[in-house]
Each structure stands twice: as structure tokens, then as C-alpha cells.
Amino acid sequence: MKTKMRRFLEISVQAFALIGVWRGASAMVSGGMATEQWGVLQTLEPYAVSATLLAIIGSFAATQAGLHGWRKLQKVTHAKERTTQPALAGEPLSSMAGQDRLIAHLQNQVVVLSREKEMLARLLKEKSETMRKDPLTGVYNRLAYEDQLKNEHQRWIRFGNPLSFVVWDIDRFKDINDRYGHAAGDEVLRGVAQQLASRIRSTDFVARYGGEEFAMLLPGADSTAAFNVADKLRRNIAEAQFSHNGVTIPVTISCGVAGFEAGDAPESVFDRADQALYRAKQAGRNRCWLL
């Protein structure tokens, strides 16, 4: 009966180890990343998944090793105590001491596994955030933008609050690269991204869409308010001092603005904003256009 109880406790701690680590990682993933992003994580960063599996397998192996070691210790202890300790009321002292050691051992395992779970969750969260950032500019990347656009669109459908979209493009960026060099072009990209990200609300969102283009979401702002915000950002960038190796680089930017309207899908809003950007370029650049 005691052997069965001991085996039951061993199986219980093994199950707790696996479920605890896995649920912790799963809860973090579901809270910080959409399912689609987890799929991308598996595709782009397979070693991140391997780290998860290794953490689970390592915890399981550590538990197994500890329990096997405890079994050996129990055999030696029982052999010694049978020759030196008397029985009390039908319950051997060796059995009582063994149960205490088992409980202490299992408690230590729970503490260790809990720490491993927290570390794994933290590493996965950090890895997720790194994958969502553009390495050159430090703002969010295309992957994060697509997820944010989907979420904001769903909130707009549910609550009906204003939502606007802005697409940005640095004027004559190819000329900047050709004249000042690609290192200077990278410096301009970082500077523009910083200007855009540092002058919007915490609820707003900006990402590098690709090349010299940036995308921005302004929840709670209708198209007129979004246009005013965008035009102020445009003026700030035109007045900013961009330089590389002591050489001043004149930089301007154009944008197209569109608000979400009844029946809109993200694609239709993007198309309107893109058309507005085209008109801004055609009208002479360094300006914003609203459609």
C-alpha cells in the first residue's frame, strides 16, 4: 500500500512538472501573441520551440533523477533502520522519516520547476517582442503591423469608435542613398522612425511597413483629427536636423490619411490611404493628403 502511495506521489509530481511548465508557456503565448504569430515563431525561429521542449524535458528528467536517487536512499535507509530502530504501534520510524523526506523532496522540485516555468515564460515573451520589432529603426515591423491592424479593425467593428490609418513615405529617399550613402540612409530611417514614434500617444501604433514606408494606426481619431496629427508630424520632420558624419541631410516626408467607414475592410482603407499618398507625391511632396 505504501509502495502504491509513493508511486502515486511520484507520478503526481511528474505530471505537475509537465503541466505547470507547458501551461505557463501557453498562457504567455496566448496573452502576448496571436496563434498566427506562434506559427510564425515556429517557422522563423525553430530553436525557440526547441528551447521550450528542452525546458520541459529537462524538468522531467531532473524530477526523474531526483526520485530515482530518493528510491536508492530509501532502500539503504530502510536496511539500516530495520536493524537499529524499533517499530511504534505498527508504523516503522523508517517509513515515517522516508515520507518526510519524500514530501521535502517534492516540495523542492515544485519550487525548482516553478522557477523554470517563470524563466521560460520570460524568455518567450522577450523573444516574441524581439521578433515584432524592426532591427534597424526599433519601431514595430510588418508582422506586428498586420496583427495590430487586425485587432484594431475587430475593436472598431465591435465598439464603433473612430479609427484612422496613415501611410508614410520619405520623399526622394533613393536620392538620399545615392548622394550621401546607404549608411546615411539608415540614419535617416532611424531618425524618421524616432520622430514618428515619440510624438504619438501610447494608444497609437507605428511600424516600418517596408523600405522607406511607415504605417500608423490612430484609434479614437476620426479622419480629420488624424490628418491634423499627421500634418504636424510632417512639419516636425521637415524642421528636424538630420545629419551623418557632420553633413546635414534635408529630409521631408509625405503621407496619405484615410478613416475607417461603414463596411470597410483593412484592405480598402489601406488602398484609400495609398491613393492619398500618391496624390500627395503628385502635388509636390512634403505634404499630407486625406481621402
Sheet of most strands: 5 strands, mixed
CATH architecture classification of the largest domain: 2-Layer Sandwich
Tally the beta strands: 9
Helix and strand sequence: HHHEEHHEHHEEHEEEHE
Per CATH, the superfamily of the largest domain is Reverse transcriptase/Diguanylate cyclase domain
Quickly give the structural class. Answer: alpha+beta
Biggest sheet: strands side by side, in what order?
4-5-3-8-9
How many distinct domains?
2
The unreliable regions are 28-63, 84-89
- The CATH topology of the largest domain turns out to be Alpha-Beta Plaits
- Give the N-terminus to C-terminus distance in angstroms: 78 Å
The 3D shape can be described as: elongated
What is the residue-mean pLDDT, rounded to a whole number? 80
Task: Describe how the helices and strands are arranged.
Elements: H1 2-32, H2 35-44, H3 46-84, E1 87-88, E2 91-92, H4 93-131, H5 142-159, E3 163-170, H6 173-180, H7 182-198, E4 205-210, E5 213-219, H8 223-239, E6 242-244, E7 247-249, E8 253-259, H9 266-282, E9 288-290
Parallel strand pairs: 8-9
Antiparallel strand pairs: 1-2, 3-5, 3-8, 4-5, 6-7
Helix pairs in contact: 1-3, 1-4, 2-3, 3-4, 6-7
